[in-house]
Amino acid sequence: DAGITQSPRHKVTETGTPVTLRCHQTENHRYMYWYRQDPGHGLRLIHYSYGVKDTDKGEVSDGYSVSRSKTEDFLLTLESATSSQTSVYFCAISDDRRTDTQYFGPGTRLTVL
Amino acid sequence: TQLLEQSPQFLSIQEGENLTVYCNSSSVFSSLQWYRQEPGEGPVLLVTVVTGGEVKKLKRLTFQFGDARKDSSLHITAAQPGDTGLYLCAGAPPWSGGSNYKLTFGKGTLLTVNP
Fold it and tell me: Is B95's pLDDT higher than 80?
């Protein structure tokens, strides 16, 4: 199994508060991704990174920002959490440019009240 | 925008039965991955197929990539309760020699195998 951890695994917060989720990998993979998974929508890409300090938006990036200051860590920040951001968040990593095979972390369940 | 449609959306069967789930698109993919996700966990990679017509077997699971690389199927023989989970397919766009970065995911087939 790829060495990917996410923290926290569960979080309950209130509307309007900032939240940061962390993804940590020990595989030295170049590419990292943040997804959210919701019933009826499947996995949707929020942001991704193709190197240290190189990031780009996915399909549902509004209300989210990311940072990657070193290869092993990719942070997802909700500047002001809203109830619509209640979801399960997954981090993924990849290093295979021909197949783009991705390996997923265990997820963070976020509830915004 | 590339789309992947999975069918059926839900499938409930008895232990020992065979089943096939499908992943279809009108777009060509350079590769396709199948994942299984169990409740409370992240998706786990089962297989990657890259060549049109390719067939890969993983114990009782058989994966096939369509000849035109637009579709794929997953066949499970003699299903067991441990096969229960959400099966996701994901496709990578045609590789141009650069970096693709992004996969297109289907919404999944939720399989329940009853003892």
Answer: no
